[in-house]
Protein 1
Amino acid sequence: MATDAIDAWTDPVSTHSQGFQDEVLALKQRRADAVDKFAQVGFPGRKHEEWRYTPLKSIASGPCSALLERSGSLLDRELLPVDAERVARIVIDNGEYRDDLSDLSAVSDHVQVQSLASMRREHPEQLSEHLARSFPADDHPFHCLSDALLDDGVFIGVAPMSDVDGEVAAIHIIHYLDGSKGPGSAHTTGLLHIAKGARIRLIEEIHCQGEVLGNIRWGVDLAEGSDVHRIRAFRSGCASIFHGSRVIQQQDSRFEDVFTCAGADLVRNEIHVLHEGSGCHAELLGAYVACGSEHIDNHTTLDHLVEDCTSREVYRGVLSGRSRGVFSGMIHVHEGAQRTDAVQSNDTILLSGAAEADSRPRLEIYADDVKCTHGATVGELDEDALFYLRSRGISLGQARRMLVRAFISEILVATGSEVLSDFIIEELQQAIDVAEEASS
Amino acid sequence: MSGKKEKQMLEIKGLHASVEGTEILKGLDLEVGAGEVHAIMGPNGSGKSTLANVLAGREEYQVDSGTVKYNGLDLLELAADERACEGIFMAFQYPVSIPGISNAYFLRTALNALRRYRDESEIDAVDFLELVRSRMELVGMDQKLLQRAVNDGFSGGEKKRNEILQMAVLDPKLSILDETDSGLDIDALRVVAAGVNALRTEDRSFIIVTHYQRLLDHIVPDRVHVLSGGRIVRSGGKDLALELEKEGYSWLEADDAKAGSGA
């Protein structure tokens, strides 16, 4: 990466990071290390193996290196329909946890929610420990930024018995990234700690306005027998989003993630799951739509560290225009992780000849009794299925819509809510319709 | 029933068609009157399925010359969905499965497409369910299959019944059954036949494409045609099917050889 590109970020990052003076040593050190590391590595170019398919040039050139300020009024957007669920609401506005707009009355005392800013002040040692565990130092540019600029976000702790009347506690997290006053970035850290046997359902959505970079990372810690069901919706019109999760699972825990994206300039969706206890399951699902010159990059790593764990990954993309979809999935079965069962698949429908899909399954297996499968398909809509529908009187246009919808809806079933699923499918479908109309 | 007296529904003249550059139909003539059941028999590779697919409007099948008139319309000018809207239905030899679309949603969408084409209002959910349930009974189909994805995980017999169910719901004028009997046990065969027989009326016609005679024990045809080398080489009454069953298709090869040396 060119030096001026690094300079576009290093000075602002260094300046911002000095705004945090009275910190405990551990946090201060972490911040300083991250500033130094970022100054060294900056945003990697295409030669870096992990970033080969993610064009960071436009981010690196610096328009968003300023930090977004609290917006005057929230973006007026239609939110996901979660009203049917007993759900708490957390609003994160340009990276700032908004106490005044969040509503935690729906969750019981078993769920502890605290802004990261207040945690930084009140329990800095604890925070520092959590960060060290969830985000070990590395040269990941967005993690470096998150550490260097660590300011706000949210800590969610879920104690067991969080089921009230059999209902799982649910939290709706809304990120607003509003660049109407000028481009900028927001760096948000979320920590999710689920105690033994506890369960939680998270519904996270992201809204953007203008030229913004959202850098969101989650450290998820699942104790024995716990269960996290997370749905993420990158709502239509998103700008540049890095969203990374590092998920550590103990024995018999279950993590399920349903990622959806209705269009964004650039998305890097990263999930790293570590199975530290046996009997874990991770389910990573994704349905995304890209149009124009949008770029969606899914990057998953499954570390199967111990025996008898399973994982299933299914990512489905619909690409039109000159958009690009990437799936890069690493399954790492470590020595001793016998009877691992890991399934991975990535299917892409190309609606235009200029769209492009890259699928890179990667397996590293150091145990002998394992089942690992991966498959990738890239193609147009199934001609036989199209003819079948048309032979029953359904027009070509409607048949195409039906097949695209079917393709996506198989993923959305996993949201566990028909209302939510229908809403998201409709939004993805609309993005496709607009693109198809523009091209026809 | 005699074809001549009836109003003609389908008139095929000199039809030549090819698939991927290979000519399959080589001058086929066929007339089907309203209310008639015609069986098309013949050895493998004779062009039976090609004929069915050409009539249904599959684009991979290229029509090189000839005409197909259907109720006064130039059928070859119509797209597959328009043909369906005009009342043509093909029961597929190999029905495709479509994960993610429920059978009920598929059927209702198709039925409404036909209704819109006829400037009728869309059917409401209650009337639709009532209609489908009665038709499912007719073809002896498990009601559970309605909520399942189209043909997804269906057994061979279930897929074929599903084809007949669609036929019964969509109520076509001309139904083309492309080897619907293949891979069916005798019970399923009876069900398929009963479905067709229940739909036989004066204004519905059927073309039954089959390799074997056994389906014709249950659906008695008005006319039987033997297709060979892309043309109809013999036509007759229902007894022709029995004759073919006895003699097989080997006599055709002899005829072909003669025709070949004569040309």
Protein 2
Amino acid sequence: MFQIKEVLLEEEKAKVIHFLHENNLDYETDIDYTIMVYDEDELIATASLARNVMKCFLVKKSYQDQNITGRMFRHLETILEARSIEHFFVYTDPTNADIFESFNMNVIVETMNTVLLEGNKNINQVLHLLKKEYDISDAKKSAVIINANPMTLGHMYLIEKAALESEELLVFVVSEDASSFPFEDRFMIIKNATEHLHNVTVLPTSNYLVSKITFPKYFLKEDQLIKDEQTLIDVLVYKEYFVPIFKINKRYLGKEPYSYNTNKYNEILQSHLGNHIKVIERKESDNKPISASLVRKLIKRNNLEKVKKYVPKATYDYLQSTRGQKIIEQIQSKTLRRH
Amino acid sequence: MSRSFLFLPGNNPGSLQNLDIFNADSIIIDLEDSVTFDTKDEARDLVYHFLSKFMFKTPSIYLRINDISTPFFNDDIDVLDSLEFKGYVLPKATKESVISLSKKTDKSIIALLETPMSLVKSEAIISLKQVDAVLLGAEDLTTAMKIESTVSRQEITYVRSKLALECAAHETLFIDTPYTDKDDLAQLKNDCLQAKILGANAKSIIHPNHVDVVNTVFSPTTHQIANAKRILKKAETHQKGAFNLDGKMIDKPIINRAKNLIAQAKKYQLL
Amino acid sequence: MNVSAGSYESNDCLITLEPAAELECIIHSVVKEQFGEQIELVLKQTLAGHNITHVKLVINDKGALDYTIKARLETAIRRMRDLDE
């Protein structure tokens, strides 16, 4: 009889990691729940959850026709139910896609090594709903996708330049709440800062772009270098869903000379989307490129006068508000992270 | 009278609806250990609908319910007792829990003895009227006693002998503990023979591939069958009282035992 | 809130219930061609037996017989009601 056990001890985790490594798989750092399947005393399978993403599925070769994946999937589903999470995702090897499709999951995108599926929702429906909610037309348009943590004059420059060159511009703000500044606040600042630009619409990226689902590595610390494969899912989701649904024919990027990871992401976007991508030179101030991380460093050092030089009025006003003051306190009390 | 009692997981429709293909004399549908805590209700509903829908003449069907200390004990009985099945297997049985169960049902009870205290007080349990059989749960027992299971199972020699003696005294069936290694059929056979030598009448099973070995070991031997036939033949001509056969006194209890043995042999298609 | 009962084992099915404006049954089955109507009948009768009319039901069937479908649905219904209390 097979028994499913959850990983509780460090030595159990080490055992799972070893089991994954033997099969050329990695245990990912954002995992918050892992199960092991035993046949008597033998570890024969494992799977994990990172919030609403199921990943790191592995079943020993000799057990692969016994629906162990189905049992693990069902177990993780009940965990998600208990956490009141409805919309969820699966990362797995493309050869497993059939199995998960038989549990009513839908394939979102597939690369050579990975397939991303979702359950209980459908990306097409979600994006069409978003399009309707923000009253987006079917005309050709441009897009900018920014986290803006917080918004700087560099972002402002990118948006203004793109807006000037386009009939219509969509500014997608990264919805994932993994940054110093909460999504709601980042979103509001950008809305206020772009009020005077009549062809600009500000909207959220939803779960599907630059999120912990499509691009988990984006939210890791700068010292962890990303590989091409890890950005590819995000690029493909953009290309296969955002581009056709929102009728985007140009995406503007700010040049990133100092962030290895952002630069890498930009390179991969360019290699997959070619002319669709337009890179704008980075806005400089006193010969120094303006970046959100520079602004956060200045906030950390409590140098708000200098911050004023690098951010639009909307950001500065926000930082003066009670809400902004609270975030400033938080940033100053924490050791500095990338986001 | 069964030789083999096969446990099947109660929350698995695939094995429930095939319970008659395993050749076991009795099936124990399990709602306890093989069913996880959060699927107890699923299993109970499934077994309810399964037994409402299907009837079986053979094999005999027992339900292993959850023990009296759990919140599931009462639900299991309340929901399932009205259905057609032979009896209950009561885990972690004590005299008190068997009495509690017998107040709620008229069905047969197999007491599962698996704690040190239940083995100390086993005779009080075996002597209860509704207890038709006891089942030795050696895995839990040895774990509680902090002793290792050995292949030869010498660590349970005493409890096997104790139960065999007490069951014989109360004419109760003694069902031996299951053998846990799925693939070692040779050692399974040794284990069955050892239990039989000490006085077990049947064996419980957790791997369906063990059924044939268990049935073979616990079947009446050809020698026993031949002997019983001779007793019954001679009894035909002696309508009343005791008689002499080959220099031995044959009385009513011996004739009855011979009848049972022949009935068993017929049932197992050994005649 | 969703509730569910069952599994993806063969001969079993997984049923999910979700409050909805009206009754909706979505059937995914390996034997939908032959048994889709039968499955729907069992589901609708069982729901009607509990006077349930406002629910979205999704069944992922792996070849379950009627008694299994009924049992899984009964469990899901009880779980839904336990959640409401």
Protein 3
Amino acid sequence: MAGALKRSAQIQRGPIRRRLTDLWRRVKANKANYLLLAPFATIFFVFTVLPVIMSILLSFTHYNMLQPPRWIGWGNYIRLFLADDVFLIAVKNTFVFAAITGPLSYFACLFFAWMINELRPKLRAFLTLLFYAPSISGNLFLIWTIIFSGDSYGLVNGFLMRFGIITEPIQWFQDPRYMMAVIILVVLWLSLGTSFLVFIAGLQSIDKSLYEAGAIDGIKNRWQELWFITLPSMKPQLMFGAVISITQSFTVAGHTIALAGFPSTDYAAHTVVTHLIDYGSVRFEMGYASAIATVLFVTMIITQRAIQYLLRKMG
Amino acid sequence: MSLRLRDRRLNRSAGGDVLIFTVLAICAAFMSLPLVYAICNAFKPLNELFLFPPQFFVRNPTLDNFRDLFVLMGQSWVPFSRYISNTLLITGLGTAGHVMIASMGAYSVSKHEFPGSRLFSEMVVLSLMFAYQVTAVPNYIIMSRLGWINTHFSMIIPAWGMSLGFFLMSRFMVQVPDELLEAARIDGAGEFRIWWSVVMPMVRPAWLTLIILSFQSLWGDTGGRFIYKEALKTLPYALSQIAAGGIARAGVGAAAGLIMIIIPVVVFVYNQSNIIETMSTSGLD
């Protein structure tokens, strides 16, 4: 009775006031949830959100890390789009790179995770390790420099020359014509990482009774099973994989630097993040580097939103 | 019917099994190259390491590289066990704390609607997309304001709040059926209790995977950004210093590289076989 009276009093107090009290009531009702979230949220805000906000603010300044930042408004962004032709090369390369490695690595992760899941349990753990090996062995992807070595002793050059396909060795990591293709190959080879493990875990989390039910409902083979049961059951993991693919394919830099050098010949393997590293850690123009990071951030958000929308549309 | 289900896996043709196995075996041979190369290199004598053209496999395996490495370890200015214990402390505390804190938070936002819950999960996803290279300076400023430069806090605490683990755990927790949580609530369990004894056992594959990922990144962390005191430095740092001694140290470097890989591989194999065990005990085969 008292509650009802209180409630009617609240309604009379006007919509904003009422909404606020309503919000407060919901906050209080979820006290336990806020407590569970608090430790993570605190650390996340201090070490992730705060630095990101500071970087975005820095992108509107001139900051050389020695003198205090000086506010220059949109200056960095104007320079980035109108006066920096290397940036445009980097954008083009990054888009080519992301458009190829993003989807391919995503489907490779899914495909291999699913295939491995088809095997008997004992083989599974072992094969997972072999497929994950490139991701666990640090900078050993540098063995690709032996395989694609630019002299005639390089494995690929030697092979092509023996069969008379080429007459002189190709400088795989120096020639702008081949650089991008070889790096894409290496990155794809490295791509069975986080998403791959998450897909494997996702496949293990599917309720096994669904498959029995499916068999009774007339599912005939493993392809139908994959399409009608497995994929719909692991939608959250598929979404996770999409986000990881976007972030990884848009931010490739370390591998191109290690393989093709920094800067690469004719900027043929220059990506947005190598451009950012150039300005951030070589030229100490932190404000400008932050502007590059912010542009990249917005681009990735738009891409992610678009993909999320498409995935929803497909059901 | 039920007997047949137990005997054979559903909807599986023998031909398909053979095909899948063959494709996987060929690809696996290709993918395992770096691991094989790392093992071979660690056992190569110095003259084989510098052979030109380079050789992939080892011809005369030797343990010299490991012997030299242990001699060098014994000579370090800070006792070598110190580097090992630093790395074990950082990796152990960092991984355990991250899995706990991230999955606690992930449970609260993925299984409840409350003011700010949606916004928070969105922010975590977005934070994955910001290039970390430019946040290095702000991060340093925050660390120094906190007075955490030259402490292990600077490596452990940020690891607890990594977005990736939170995102991963919340994606798996979305799938836990609400009826189970409701049943536990009726039985009088509090939210913390439900998280720990109902939700966590159900998403076991998720946190076993997260342990692998977190362990691997912390284990390889040299701590170069925030730690400058020698006695606080980590194993990868110490080993890279030993390996950086020029051409004569190439063999030692290869041995050190193998040692750095072995521990994550052991954690990986242990966790992966546990993930799979979850299935074989509850599944059909």
Protein 4
Amino acid sequence: MGQAAMNTGVGPALEPILRVEHLTMRFGGLLAVNDLSFDVARGQITALIGPNGAGKTTVFNCITGFYKPTSGRVALMSGGPQSDPAIAALTDSPGRSQRVGRGGVYLLERMADSEIAAQAKVARTFQNIRLFTGMTVLENLIVAQHNWLNHASGYSVLGLVGAKSFREAEAKAVEIAVAWLDCIGLKGRADDPAGALPYGDQRRLEIVRAMCTGPVLLCLDEPAAGLNPRESAELNELLLSIRDGNGTSLLLIEHDMSVVMEISDHIVVLEYGKKISDGTPDYIKNDPKVIAAYLGVEDEEVDEAEAEIEG
Amino acid sequence: MSEGEAKTVASDERASFSWISALRDAGFLALFTLGLSFPILAFRTRQDLWHGLVLDPRWDLVATVVAIAFFGRLSWLVVGGRVSRNVQSFATQVGEVLAPLQNYKGTFRLVGLIWLIAYPFLAVLIAGPGGALKWIDNFGIQILIYVMLGWGLNIVVGLAGLLDLGYVAFYAVGAYSTALLSTYFGLSFWICLPLAGIFAAFWGILLGFPVLRLRGDYLAIVTLAFGEIIRLVLINWVELTNGAAGISGIPRPTFFGLPFNASDEGFAAFFGLEFTPLHRLFFLFYLILALALLTNWVTIRLRRLPIGRAWEALREDDIACRSLGIDTVTTKLTAFSIGAMFGGIAGAFFAARLGFISPKSFEFMESAVILSIVVLGGMGSQVGVAIAAVAMIGGTELLRELGWLKSIFGAGFDPTQYRMLLFGMAMVGMMVWRPRGLISKREPSLVLHEKRAIGGDLVKEGQG
């Protein structure tokens, strides 16, 4: 089945920030992701959904460099539209990234996890929250700004002598952190250890911590897991404000359909490591393949499938 | 708790205590001790005149040990719970009493500093010039070396959460580079001191590159091996290091070129003072005090810089660090090399202080002692490490003062042999009563509204 036929429901004007092509991830004999291709639209919220074990988190780990994909290309186009020849030229060269104008092309499958976050500006959160529990809320957000702050501290030399330029940089970093804390209503708890926050606050803190790295693409792994309806609604608001206010593109894995259907601009459905559908929420809702994957198929269809295999 | 409630609890305790189960428990331990002591204590081997092996039975000793185990366990079961609870609540109380003292930190720091500066003078005043030698050298300088080593290792283990069992290797690198540079090239102590730090930091990076991919137990084992490799090289590279015999004749540190001797060019003559060996000790004491305070100052400063926060973040969660774009390899390497640098500087001081070094000073036991000081003090806590160093090193030095015990236990009794027992007991006591070290609270490096210490239960120890 062709790529074009899949993209029903998504307007042709969509311009991708991330293009995943023929991504395959194999763990020994297990094919976790099988020849997966999809686009993440710039300035929009894209959701990656699918039943348990469909390979969603594996795709995430491939995009953010925690896994090295077996094959395939993951190209990030930051700054603005990038031409296909430029991406092809970079793919043929041994390089990993190429600056074009204010942005650039980054081949994420060639980069390590921390480089992807630091250079390509792709931030992520985790399914099981990974905050620095023994550090304060504020410290968590300052650590997220490590790279430019460390540079401002003259790699600790200027910082050690207490240079004014570093003190100013640190004040700026605190300002950014406080602005984000204000955004999620945790300013009053800035000096509490992150591990002492309620679960829902920890989820949102992890998201704003990722935002403190100044990402162009934010990847969220089940941000609504374990949240109550009120917290889910607050999360929706936060994600929409990130999309609209910061112009950050979002890619999220989610099981909570109230979140997915309400805020996603575009949904990709995975099953057994393969894409089975791709389109707008309305399109996905009515796609029989998606309904079959989520609700199971009718008996007669199973019979049909068995006949197909035997025949 | 009201009086009535207290009574119920007390009677409950009495009711829950059963002599039969206590006897069974103690009997089991006695049996266990018998099984354990049979192969170790029951026979002493010796050679007779014909070089044959003779077994001397020592059943009385076995019986004594088993009896001690039985009655010890029994009495612990009878009163131990109360003792343990009292100690526990005492430890908590001490912690609570000490906690508000945080507010007077500035005052404490000042008083502590004045006391440290006055210490050698007080020693002379109280013990007299002859008696003060021991107090300044064995207690003052010796403890301060370990305080400095503890603070250096605290960067690696306490802040960055990297378990390093071979820290003494960097101490050795510092000591040997000073010894070799000063004896081969005649470099002065003041040039060797920073060079030793640089060499040790360099070795820290060199070791770090291959091992920092490892985590937890594996990292610990490899650092342990590295420490042993350095020691074995020092023993076996006889042409350079003079092997196990060590290097002697390392020039003593001078006071900006003035040696501490009775000559006319000496320190005493220059300042018109009467010569006494105390001058050198005073100088060494203030030197190691300054070096230790430098270590402390740098650590405190670094903790508040991005690099220090990255170390602590690494200890908390290295995967989250990578997702935030922190280069974990560089971050670990800086922790390793800065910790190693302070170890190296302490090593340089050690070499110059004694004028003689040999590989015997850099055995694994030293690494274990330094690590236990860090762990006992509370990982990451500067004050805790200092207190632990005073308690552990001061305690073992105090054992030397217990010669009078010979009159009780007989002439063969040597209290200094019980050094490790002291360490072991401190460790067991810590495990039971303060499992996160003397000071387990973490202080935030940055405050928006109000400074609040973070409880040790939330702070992670690091996985590698």
